[in-house]
Amino acid sequence: MSRFLPRALMAPSIVTLFLWMIVPLVMTLYFSVIHYNLMQPGETGFVGLENFHYFITDPDFWPSVMHTIQLLGSVIVITVVLGVGLALLVNEPFPGQGIVRVLLISPFFVMPTVNALLWKHMMMNPIYGVLAHVWQFFGLTPIDWMTDYPLLSVIVMLSWQWLPFACLIFITSLQSLDREQMDAAGMDGATRFDKFWYLVLPHMGRSIAVVVMIEMIFLLSVFAEIFTTTGGGPGNDSTNLAFLIFKQALMNFDVGVASAGALFAVILANIAAVFLIRMVGKNLD
Amino acid sequence: MLKKKPFPIVRTLSAWGVALLLFFPLFWLGITAFKTEAQAIAAQLFFTPTLASFVEVQERSNYLLFARNSLITSLGSTIIGLLIAIPAAYSMAFFPTKKTRDILMWMLSTKMMPAVGALVPVYVMAQTAGMLDSLPALVIVFTLSNLPIMVWMLYSAFKEVPKDILEAVRLDGATVWEEFRWVILPLTMGGIASTGLLCLVLSWNEAFWALNLTSANAGTLASLIASYSSPEGLFWAKLSAASLMAIAPIIVFGWFSQKQLVQGLTFGAVK
Question: What sections of the protein cross the membrane (chain A) (predicted)?
Fold first, then answer.
């Protein structure tokens, strides 16, 4: 086997991905040190680190970093915990198991924009939404979700979308659990909790790692849900980093500052990647 | 002999309960699409279904054009993606070097940067190439943004091929192509299929690039839906009808392929 072929086979993927990464990165790097505002085409020139300074001292900056982390953390915890519970619930055969599985997985296939509009208008609308009707039924004052709990609303939508994904991966994992070992443990007097804690959970470790990894990749840069529902507001209450960069680029027309922000996001993504490798990487070989 | 245990009724009921609860928003979207605007606002459960909203959606915007664009971009990016990713994953799985892990991790890290960070450069490039609002541009972008995940999934699928089969074939002097065509491909068809399925779903649902790189010609269903989020488009029955028409194809597709898809998504982590 020559060493040439394996490289030739990898080349298309690596070259295209490299270009896909490096060309925008270099352009972004360039934009980030010049004055580049679409509304002031006359003013150009090198400004050094001014854009970075401007982006980091933006009052929306730290909140948006915190929101990015809160969003990521909450959705991962919610989907993993509920996903494990749900998987345990539907794993054993029961009447209609097939239909239940089909119902459970459906939200995963819903387009993010549809997900957002569906929750914003039909579920969470404070006057006509289904949740408002439920609240009224119990004699409570309906909640104006998007205004009063914007970040929580986004977390709810995202959890709804990702719970099915987590759950079904866990079901697949549970199906390969060693039944004999479980029965043996039962005969040795292990309680339900013992079995869960010492047998089931360790067995699911790898699939939990997979779920965390995939969700981390997709949730770090959540955009469509925020764009279509809260628009980052009210104020900056649901602005995450991706949305803040968008705001600078397309609402303030300041490509320079947006580029500085994008480079910051690259750094954050790399920090996350390092965490991911430590936490998950070795689990997947 | 295994004694058949009666299924616990509480368990069955709670499983059904949770499933129906999670499905409820979609059910609601589905029935709202068949209501009049007045019924939609009043949150009525019983009503005479009407197709008026669907008709109006088609009249207001050319649904079929958007649907065609979605189909072309999803299928196109999936096929091209598989053609590029399969050789790479094959090479990494069967001819691993010390750098293989690093390459995989690097690929994954390209996926973690917010797309919005690359928006201006990509927009400028598309504009320079005269490819704004064109399907090829969208296909390229979708392919590249799905590529890391595809290589990963295929890599895990190829990794599971038993080593001794491979050695036997190589001893028999099979060429790389023969080895791939007659041994690897049949054994990993499931993994390849689920990779393709996921890529289809992701491309179909992709909204960010579709919104920012297209307008009238190459818009996909995701961008059609976004146009309904503007205040003047705020009619729930029509919004629901448009949404239903956008998600129904991929959901039905998902129902039929869910087993396959989930199996592949476990990244070989579940044996």
Answer: 12-33, 69-90, 102-119, 149-172, 208-227, 255-277
Contacts of A284 in chain B (CB under 8 A): 156, 267-269
* Chain A environment of B207 (Cβ under 8 Å): 111-113, 223-224
CA angle B194, B195, B201 (to 5 degrees): 85
- Chain B nearest CA to A40, separation (Å): 16
Interatomic CA distance for residues B17 and A100, integer angstroms: 9
Mean pLDDT of B20-26: 94
CA distances from B254 to A105, A235, B171, B222 (A): 8, 38, 41, 17
Interfacial A residues in 25-64 facing B (CB < 8 Å): 27-28, 31
State pLDDT tens for residues B180-199. Answer: 888 888 888 888 988 999 89
- Residue A50 to chain B, least CA–CA distance (Å): 18
Superfamily of domain covering A61-238? MetI-like (1.10.3720.10)
Please tell me whether residue A46 adopts helix, strand or coil conformation. strand
Superfamily of domain B49-266: MetI-like (1.10.3720.10)
Span A45-66, pLDDT tens digits: 888 888 888 888 888 889 998 9
Contacts of B102 in chain A (CB under 8 A): none
- Is B28 within 8 Å of A122 when comparing Cβ atoms? yes
Most confident of A2-11, A183-192, B76-85: B76-85
Locate the domains of chain A by residue range.
Answer: 61-238
A243: closest chain B residue by CA? B116
Q: What is the DSSP letter of B228?
A: T
Parse chain B into domains and list their residue ranges: 49-266
Q: Is A134 on the interface with B (CB under 8 A)?
A: no
Tell whether ipTM is more than 0.85.
yes
